[in-house]
């Protein structure tokens, strides 16, 4: 088939290194097929899927369960993360089996690990970081100490604070919860030599700290998602649970700094933290009990294209933060004798002139709710090509489940 891309831009396919497609076990929220259709519709050709599913991806055995499902269902290429827990004995096996990286949540929140598993303290984590560093893999770190969040939330409840008083919420205290997580990560990187990637950065001060440590030579990179630079604390009143995410969206000064950081390259990567929940889990609960997360994989590239049209970021930088940087950091870039994913035609064709309005109905996710509903954007992906096959054309999914294949840093292309 000959594609006429006249008047359009042909870009490398987007790589989103932080999505939750909920397979296996939580498929009432999303599954690998609906999630990857949303990715294809958004011009994303590779996703890295997070391990907080049932059973959680923390062993070779559980990794294989998820891999089989992704193989059958995914429309786009995918990497599969493993958890970093007390699983030192699984690290080599997981890398052999093909994980794309390791996710460290630092501390517990309200999910449970299977019997015998727990989040390691620094002593134990150091050994695991060393084991991962041996392979030159990256540890991706949740930019927040959730134990501190949990304790502070309990404290607020005991004080009888109004649960609608969003501003009083601990989640507007990045000075404690984010900086604690960052310092802890830098210590472990220093003693192990392991590369670390801070995901969903939320604050101005957090970004400054990362730059400080980069200057000192710490091998750290970071990403931010559209929710954290689009919205800020003033928007809680309007959106309620719709923009409740963890780590929380902070103040306007933070979202502005995050946007500046992304546009300039100080924050290397854009990643969405696409995290669907049922409407019941998002909207029928008090603020405290609303499950955190919002969808985003279908709207991230359009949001950036719109900002290109507004002159706020260059198209080259969009390609950099959505394809080149994630590929480099996570080892999908060409090495000697290897071909990169884009080289077998992972492409997205975008129409920079197209004006359109985001709607819930257009979302391929099982959870249709998107806080971007009603956003008027200029610029849209009109075709997504994965390994030479068209998977999305004019917003319609025309690919097949099972077309995508697994990617990771060690495979030969
Ligand atoms: O908002 C979030 N939702 N943040 C996370 O770290 C987890 C995610 C989820 O799995 O729902
Ligand atoms: Zn996270
Ligand atoms: Zn996440």
- Helical content stands at 25-40%
**Percentage beta strand:** 15-25%
Structural class: alpha/beta
How many beta-strand runs?
A: 13
Helix run count: 13
Q: What is the average per-residue confidence, as pLDDT, rounded to a whole number?
A: 93
Radius of gyration, whole Å: 20 Å
Which regions are unreliable across 5 or more consecutive residues at pLDDT < 50?
none
**Which small-molecule species are bound to the chains here?**
(4S)-2,6-dioxohexahydropyrimidine-4-carboxylic acid, zinc ion
The ordered H/E elements are EEHEHEHEHEHHEHEHHHEHHHEEEE
Strand order of the largest sheet: 2-3-4-5-6-7-8-9
Q: What's the story with the biggest beta sheet?
A: 8 strands, parallel
How would you sum up this structure, described in words?
The chain has 413 residues and is of the alpha/beta class. Helix content is 34%, strand content 18%. The chain contains 13 helices and 13 strands. It has helices at 32-41, 60-73, 91-97, 122-133, 146-158, 174-192, 204-215, 226-230, 236-239, 252-264, 279-283, 300-309, 315-329; strands spanning 9-12, 14-19, 44-49, 77-83, 101-104, 138-142, 195-199, 220-224, 269-270, 347-357, 376-386, 389-393, 396-397. It has an eight-stranded parallel sheet with strand order 2-3-4-5-6-7-8-9. Helix 4 crosses helix 6 (174-192) and helix 6 runs parallel beside helix 7. The model has no long low-confidence stretch (mean pLDDT 93). One zinc ion (ZN) binds at residues 142, 199-200.
């Amino acid at each position: 088939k000959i594609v006429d891309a006249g008047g359009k831009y042909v870009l490398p396919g987007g790589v989103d290194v932080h999505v939750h497609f909920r397979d296996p076990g939580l498929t009432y929220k999303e599954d690998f097929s609906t999630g990857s259709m949303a990715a294809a519709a958004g011009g994303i050709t590779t996703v890295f899927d997070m391990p907080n599913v049932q059973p959680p991806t923390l062993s070779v055995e559980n990794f294989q369960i998820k891999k089989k499902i992704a193989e059958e269902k995914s429309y786009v290429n995918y990497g599969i993360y493993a958890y970093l827990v007390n699983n030192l004995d699984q690290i080599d096996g997981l890398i052999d089996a093909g994980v794309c990286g390791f996710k460290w949540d630092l501390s517990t929140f309200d999910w449970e690990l299977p019997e015998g598993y727990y989040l390691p303290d620094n002593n134990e984590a150091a050994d695991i970081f060393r084991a991962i560093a041996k392979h030159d893999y990256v540890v991706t770190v949740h930019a927040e100490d959730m134990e501190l969040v949990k304790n502070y939330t309990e404290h607020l409840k005991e004080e009888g604070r109004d649960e609608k008083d969003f501003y009083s919420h601990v989640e507007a205290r990045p000075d404690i919860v984010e900086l604690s997580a960052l310092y802890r990560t830098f210590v472990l990187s220093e003693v192990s030599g392991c590369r670390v990637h801070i995901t969903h950065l939320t604050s101005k001060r957090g970004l400054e700290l990362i730059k400080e440590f980069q200057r000192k030579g710490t091998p750290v990179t970071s990403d931010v998602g559209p929710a954290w630079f689009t919205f800020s604390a003033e928007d809680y009143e309007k959106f309620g649970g719709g923009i409740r995410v963890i780590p929380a969206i902070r103040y306007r000064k933070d979202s502005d700094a995050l946007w500046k950081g992304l546009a300039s390259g100080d924050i290397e990567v854009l990643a969405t933290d696409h995290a669907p929940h049922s409407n019941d889990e998002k909207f029928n609960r008090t603020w405290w009990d609303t499950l955190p997360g919002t969808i985003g994989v279908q709207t991230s590239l359009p949001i950036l294209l719109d900002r290109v049209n507004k002159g706020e970021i260059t198209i080259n930088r969009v390609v950099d933060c959505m394809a080149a940087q994630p590929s480099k950091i996570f080892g999908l870039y060409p090495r000697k004798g290897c071909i990169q994913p884009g080289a077998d035609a992972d492409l997205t064709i975008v129409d920079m002139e197209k004006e359109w309005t985001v709607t819930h109905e257009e979302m391929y996710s099982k959870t249709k709710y998107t806080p971007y509903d009603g956003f008027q954007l200029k610029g849209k992906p009109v075709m997504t090509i994965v390994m030479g096959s068209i998977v999305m054309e004019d917003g319609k999914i025309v690919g097949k489940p099972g077309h995508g294949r697994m990617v990771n840093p060690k495979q030969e292309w």
